[in-house]
Amino acid sequence: MIDVGGLKKGMIIDMEGELYRVISMNKHFTGRGSGIIRTKLKNVLTGYSKDHSFSSGEKVDEATLEYREAEYLYNDGEHYYFMDTNNFEQFPLDDELVGDAVDFLIDNMKVNLMFYESKPIGINLPTFVILEVVETEPNFKGDTVSGSGKPAKMETGVRVNVPMFIKTGEKIKVDTRTGEYIERA
Question: Are 102 and 58 in contact (CB under 8 A)?
Fold first, then answer.
């Protein structure tokens, strides 16, 4: 069991006999008494979302999951196909199970498939991915590395705010947890 104060976005918990993915969480503390942790949870199997508030200090069960290394193969419009790298078995996952990870999936990427009772329920991406910039505004004289940036469209379609000196065609390293630019690749 884990304390609800330790919940993080993306964690999967077992609550009331069902699996829920933590979509978001906010901690609210009052001047007197214990705090409240408000969460938005999504049922992993049904896709149903609900808001749930926990009292500070409550404990929840973290789901017991099995992880297998897999390789992303392709998307046929309905499902994303992953192949277990040990036994070459293929697993189709729909949009609900892949979730926001679709923004960072590139062909032949190694990921970890999450299984609950031998059924795939989602994927874990590597912390950083290398993506190519396919569209961004051109540079102009006087560009610096200062805090300003510009939007850039990546090969997967996701938009990332990048420094002014990044050009179309360059490859950059992106943090999959936050969607932020890290460095040139």
Answer: no
What is the distance between the alpha carbons of residues 162 and 4, in angstroms, rounded to a whole number? 35
- From 105, 124, 143, the end of a domain falls on 124
Alpha carbon distance 26, 23 (integer Å): 11
pLDDT tier for residue 143 given thresholds of 50, 70 and 90 = low
93 lies in the same domain as 46: no
Closest C-alpha to 129, from 108, 113, 150, 149: 108
88 lies in which domain range?
Answer: 66-124
CATH number at residue 32: 2.30.30.30
What pTM did the predictor assign? Answer: 0.73
Instruction: Give the rounded percent of residues in the chain with a pLDDT score beyond 70.
Output: 95
Does residue 54 have a pLDDT over 80?
yes
Domain count, the chain: 3
Q: How far apart are CA 96 and CA 8, in angstroms?
A: 19
Q: What is the greatest pairwise CA distance in the chain?
A: 60
What CATH number is attached to the domain comprising 143? 2.40.50.140
At residue 129, the pLDDT reads 93
**DSSP-based three-state secondary structure for 35:** coil
SS3 content of the chain, % helix, strand, coil (to 5): 5, 55, 40
